[in-house]
Recover the amino acids of this structure.
């Protein structure tokens, strides 16, 4: 009896270890992650609208149909990025993800406190290279540090009524995601 109990415990323990290792390694080996799915429709350092959700078209699964969405695939290899987006009357949010899908920053229209969300995205090394400007405060210039040089910026705008979806899409179309011009 004791022998069977030890074999059972060993089997459960081994199964748990295999399950845990599989769950931790699988996201790193997946070839169809969000970045890869968005590559055909989203050019680098430009905002592209995500097509409206339908059964035949699910670029990003499990999206809320009440939101219009757009994405910017960024590459900070050539320098920082300037991001601007007008806010809508209902709700607007911007989320930042690494190449592997780790969320590292998010802001919405309420937190921005302005009619436009405006920020600069750069790596830690690019931030240390910035000249120190005494007359510019943190309230004047929002700088987001990316942990990686490539990733995704996901923009969402709420359409509280189906008839307001075009207003939400127009707000996303006015968003801009482009490299900062060198001084």
């Amino acid at each position: 009896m004791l022998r069977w109990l030890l074999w059972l415990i060993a089997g459960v323990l081994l199964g748990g270890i295999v399950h845990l290792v599989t769950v931790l390694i699988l996201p790193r080996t997946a070839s169809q992650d969000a970045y890869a799915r968005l590559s055909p429709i989203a050019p680098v350092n430009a905002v592209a609208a995500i097509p409206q959700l339908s059964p035949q078209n699910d670029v990003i699964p499990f999206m809320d149909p009440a939101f219009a969405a757009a994405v910017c695939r960024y590459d900070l290899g050539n320098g920082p990025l300037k991001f601007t987006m007008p806010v809508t009357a209902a709700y607007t949010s911007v989320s930042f993800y690494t190449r592997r899908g780790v969320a590292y920053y998010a802001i919405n229209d309420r937190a921005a406190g302005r009619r436009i969300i405006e920020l600069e995205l750069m790596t830690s090394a690019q931030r240390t290279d910035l000249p120190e400007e005494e007359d510019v405060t943190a309230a004047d210039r929002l700088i987001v540090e990316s942990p990686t040089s490539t990733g995704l910026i996901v923009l969402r705008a709420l359409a509280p009524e189906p008839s307001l979806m075009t207003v939400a899409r127009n707000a996303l179309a006015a968003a801009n995601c482009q490299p900062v011009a060198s001084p």
In short: The first strand starts at residue 47 and ends at 49. The chain has two domains: 1-30, 34-179.
